[in-house]
Structure formats: C-alpha cells, structure tokens
Amino acid sequence: MCDNQNCINMKTTLLVVGRTVEQHYITAINDYIQRTKRFITFDMEVIPELKNTKNISMELQKEKEGELICKAFQPGDVIVLLDEHGKEMRSLEFAEWMKRKMNTVNKRLVFVIGGPYGFSQKVYDVAHEKISMSKMTFSHQMIRLIFVEQIYRAMTILNGGPYHHE
C-alpha cells in the first residue's frame, strides 16, 4: 500500500469542536475508528466547546474556536479542513488521495471539523487543503460518523478488502 516509510510514521487525526453527544453516533464512530486502526494510526481529538456562547457573536465564537483549533496543531502537521467549499471526491478518489498522503506526509495528517459556524479566517490561513463531504449539509455529529466511515472505506480499498463495491 505504501511506497516508503512515511505511512508507518504518519499519524492521522480527526480534530473536532465539541464532544459527540448522541450515543448511537458515539458507538458507530468508535467502531469505525477501531476498524481503521488495523490499517493506520488514527484517533479523534476533541476541543471542548465554548461555554456561555449566547452572549457572543457568531464571528467572535468562530475566532475563539479558531484559536483553540490552532493551538491543537503541531509543527509539521498537514491540515485538511472538512469544509463545504472544499474539493469533492468519490470514495475511490479519496482512497487514492489518502495513499498519496501516506507516501508524502511525515508527521500528522489532521482533518478538522469546525464548530457550528464554521472556521475562522485564521484556521483557513493555516490549512493546506479543504475537502467537502457533500454539497448537502449534515449535522456536525453526523459528519463525524460519515467521515470516519470514509477513512475506513479508503483503507479497505487500498488493502483490497471486500468492504467497498463498485
């Protein structure tokens, strides 16, 4: 699957704002994360959601979340935002994209799901790429599940597993 040692060194992280609250999502997300760990180093990091947001503007909330997101980054991270304006890919294309990343990223490949109002400009400025999961809008809870399933699907495609069918 990999052409060099990078895939062994590369860590993949899904960075999210706020914890997943619905139990059925938590169960399914954890299941796909465990399945994916058979193929790559993969984890989900949660940035605590802001408290008392009723009295602050949407822009200020995005700025404060952006600061917390940026603090979670490490030197050498390749940052990919899950963003409605990003590139759309079919599952096979995403698998090939992941293969390229596994051969080129030396540290962490960090996918980021922002808060309810999206990303601050500061986060956009440090990002390397943007990927869109769909033209449709999904809840932040649901997109976590959809994304971890797609990571697992990509890994099974790259490893010749029976999970994905054309």
UniProtKB/TrEMBL annotation:
Pfam hit, one: SPOUT_MTase
Domain of life per record: Bacteria
Keyword vocabulary terms for this entry: Cytoplasm, Methyltransferase, rRNA processing, S-adenosyl-L-methionine, Transferase
InterPro entries associated with the record: Alpha/beta_knot_MTases, RlmH-like, tRNA_m1G_MTases_N
Catalytic activity, reaction form: pseudouridine(1915) in 23S rRNA + S-adenosyl-L-methionine = N(3)-methylpseudouridine(1915) in 23S rRNA + S-adenosyl-L-homocysteine + H(+)
Primary location group: cytoplasm
Segments traversing the membrane: none
Subcellular location: Cytoplasm
Keyword rRNA processing: yes
SUPFAM superfamilies in the record: alpha/beta knot (SSF75217)
Functional note: Specifically methylates the pseudouridine at position 1915 (m3Psi1915) in 23S rRNA.
HAMAP family: 23SrRNA_methyltr_H
Family: Belongs to the RNA methyltransferase RlmH family.
Protein name, as recorded: Ribosomal RNA large subunit methyltransferase H
